[in-house]
Amino acid sequence: MSTTSQKHRDFVGEPMGDKSVMALSGIGGILGKKLEEQGFDKAYVVLGQFLLLKKDTEMFTDWLKDVSGANSRQAGSCAQCLKEWCDAFL
Amino acid sequence: MPMFVEDPANFSKSRLKSDLVAHNVKLPPAKSKKEVYVELHMQHIDQKKTVEFSSDEEVEEDEEDDMEGEDGENPGDAEMPDPSALTDDDLKAALLKHGVKAGPIVASTRFLYEKKLRKLLQSDGHHGQLNGAKNGMMYSDSEEEEEEENGEDNDAESSAEEENKETVEESDQADEESSQVQAGSQSVAANVYSSSSSSSSSSSQTFSITEMLKEMEGRRSLSTSANSERAFNGGNVQHHWSQSNRLDMPSVVNRTMKNQSLYYTPKAFPQEREMQEPVKDDFKHLFPAEITPSGIYATRRRPIKGAAGRPIQYMYPDTPVSPMTLQRRDVERRLVPVHIQILVFVTVTCLLYLIYVCVEDNTFSPIVSLLDNLNPGSNSGEALLHKTEAQDTPALSEWE
């Protein structure tokens, strides 16, 4: 089933703790930097935004695209990653 | 006369901030007083509001009654022309009106919810134009509604025909047999159902969604029996469904719909909307990514695989990951080379010893004597050892 990347599995497999945004699936160096500029320097801050949007992946992808300039695939991957993390640990 | 204007001074500071951000106004330094925000707010945003209202009054005379009606009523009732001009609560109420339960509207989420409301308004506008305008529905006679109903009938029938040839016959029969009202509701149900699944029979005659679902599930075997079931009306079906265990939610919806159709001639348009929304809910978890009239795309919710019983491990059978196994793997990586390290160490020491021996005495004899030492025969070995030692010491003395 899983078309998930190793990064995805690494993130979803354990509590995110103090991981940087770059640890999120779909977020690479450039996007991570843009997020950090906006103030989202840790993965849990992005998680906060995801939760504020009531875990709606669609709205979150819209927001992420707007804030960091991610494309649909990257934003979708990140949203999916966070959603699974929430399902497992929240 | 604008009825919307609220005094910005009554707003909270965070509300003023979010408003300014929404209107792309540069924020004053973080620790400014509220008055600064209020001033900016009044400058930029209130100007906008007055412009909007004056243009409304000037341009649209025909709909003056409607517009005044909208302004006079509470903000929750009519469509909001500009989502950015709404307060947080109004925005939330407007979204709720369209069936979207919004989360907290904060600075970071406000823009998204405004965008969503705009999308909903646009799709409403399209929908309204197609079906004769929501405002028209609210303020017009029943004659218009009947016309709309007929129009919907035709649309529904034509779409049903396009998608499924089998339903054509049955839908025709349904129209002949039942009243106009029932035909409207059934064809609407048919339209909704056929748009969502490709299954054959079922849809037309019944206005019970649960029946359609059941038929879909037992499609292959029960098709004939399902046809016979469809002939029954009212109480029979209801009784049947009260007994059934599956899908409680649709059955409740089904009953409410039935009651409406049986007890009074419903106004087709609101009924259609009501029916569509519960239908949407039913099919949401069954069919992925359905194209819905309101434009809200909902992906099928993935089953929860949380720590409570179905741990993440089973999702990824190829790599069972847990922190402990990761640590163990790291340790093991270090353990394995240890054997190799020991072997290497032993060989290197032997080599070094041999080299040392060679260096001590350039002749080949010490190596030969060493090799002889390995042979069984301790006496000879000892004698040879003494000999080598004796040889070594003069060698050492020579070196010095």
UniProtKB/TrEMBL annotation, chain A:
Matches recorded under InterPro entries: BAF, BAF_prot
UniProt record, GO biological process: chromosome organization
Key words of the record: Nucleus
Localization, UniProt: Nucleus
Presence of keyword Nucleus: yes
Assigned GO CC terms: condensed chromosome; nucleus
Single annotated GO MF: DNA binding
One Pfam short name: SAM_BAF
Protein name: Barrier-to-autointegration factor-like protein
